[in-house]
Amino acid sequence: MGRIPTTVGLIPGAGLVARFANLVIFLHGESPSTDRILGAAETAASAPDPGVAIAQRLAATVFSSGSAQPPAFGVVAPTAGGILILLRGPVTAAVDGPEGARTLSGERAMTWADEIVRNPVRRLTVIAEGVGGEIAHTDLRAGVVAGGGFVLHAPVSGLGAARLREAARNPAAEAGAKSAPEPTPKAAA
User: Fold this and answer.
1) Where is this region: Disordered (predicted)?
2) What's the confidence (pLDDT) of residue 176?
């Protein structure tokens, strides 16, 4: 039915988790720039390369001269070559991918920490310091909810993301391409 196969599980806690197509963002704490950051994420999600678009839009939104102290955040978006991860403040990402398991942090970065992780990534967790585990049976498919982070299971990127966006726009064509033709009844003689 055009559903993106990536599961986005939620982690309880203070903050916001938002999903716009294949871009997922976690905002830890409230700030006057929260609405602008969410708007930048929503706009970037529809770009041909959401990873490049979110980095450009966040730089303009978060670090503009009149901007208040931006909240800590974690962003995951498909980009050329893999999955872009952006982290700011006391937010960490645990990645289980082709290079093995590793943890990234935005805590010691002046602006934000960024890394492109190659596919396939089996699990990617973005959380604030000191939060619990994933809420069982959750799957954020679109929108904004309260949460202390998120867990992506089998995320998609690059060309796969573009193919999935097209399938989401035209689910009937995707279903038709995968199903076998209907047999035609034979006339009785």
Assistant:
1) 167-189
2) 44
CA distance 97 to 33: 32
Contact 116, 51 (CB under 8 A): yes
Q: Which two tokens stand for residue 42?
A: 């929503």
E strand spans, 37-156? 72-79, 82-97, 100-106, 113-117, 123-128, 143-146, 149-153
Q: What are the residue ranges in the chain where pLDDT is below 70?
A: 1-5, 65-68, 155-189
Residue 113, amino acid: A
Contact 15, 44 (CB under 8 A): no
Q: Distance (Å, rounded) from C-alpha 76 to C-alpha 45?
A: 11
Give the C-alpha separation, 162 to 158, whole Å.
7
Name residue 75's beta-bridge partners. 25, 86
